Each structure stands twice: as C-alpha cells, then as structure tokens.
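Format notes (please read before filing issues)

Several people have asked whether sequences and structure tokens are stored in separate files. They are not. Every record keeps both together, in the order shown below: the sequence lines, then the token lines. Line labels are part of the format and must not be stripped during preprocessing.
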Amino acid sequence: VITPDFRGRGFSAWDPDWTNYRPRTYVDDVRRLLDELAIDRAALVGTSLGGLVATAFTTEWPERVAGVVLNDIGPEIGEQGLARIKGYIGRATPVSSWDDAVRQAREIYELAWPGLNDADWHRLVRRSYRENDAGIPQLDMDPRIGDAAREVGTGLNDPW
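Then the structure lines:
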C-alpha cells in the first residue's frame, strides 16, 4: 500500500509555484510515482480531491488501473459545496493549542461530518495539523493551495 501526500500537503514539500496545486499536476505526480516504483498497474483509492485525481488518472491511463474506490466524491460537484471549499481552503487562522485546532476544524467541517465525537475530532486534527518547533499546531498544508483553488480553480469543474 502506498499512501502519498499530494504536493503541499502532509509530508510532501510545498511547491514554489503555487499554480501547480491543481488536479492536472497531481495526476502527473501519481503517474511519475508509479513509474518511479515500476508499478505498471494499480488499484487506486481516492477521497475527495484524491477521488477526482483517481478518476482523471483512470481516464488518461485506463490500462494502468486495476480498479478505483471513490470516497466523498461523485459524478457531479455541486456549486454550493465548491463555494464552501473555496471559502475556507488556505484561510485558516493560526491556532495556539490543540484544543483551538479542534475548535477550528469543527467550525469548518462539522457540517460535513456531523456524527464525530470529541475523541474523533482530536484524532482527525492530529492527522491534519503538525506541531511547529515551538510545539504549536499548524495546519499541515501550504496555504497557497487556497489561492490555487480560487484563482486557478480547484480543478473540480476544469481539472486541467
């Protein structure tokens, strides 16, 4: 199982050219990763943006895809949901503690994940934020991803 972070997220480096934060780039990154690992054919699992990338990858290189599992993405992307994403992505204000990070995540995502309990929220936040050198949690993504979503487009309606 290979679980890559898209550029600008998690343990991947931030791209010096923020306009590369779009599905076209991520699709090419997945292809390069599979080439580098000498994987000719793979099953892809994608959640949200990852599902969009898996779908686009499958369209371009169907012979390289053994199967696709999609989560939190469908054949149509609603304008209301797209506007909500563009409204918050890359705009999170700094927090000063893990409890503040949980509050922030709940404000942004509770509408989408209404059934999570306190322990679930704390686990989610520990996977979405990382402590800086001072021990303060920071969202684990390049904020310029939000600029790309708003100015270049999320790729949800025009992935290229």
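For reference, the curators noted about this record: The first strand starts at residue 42 and ends at 47. The chain has a mean pLDDT of 91.
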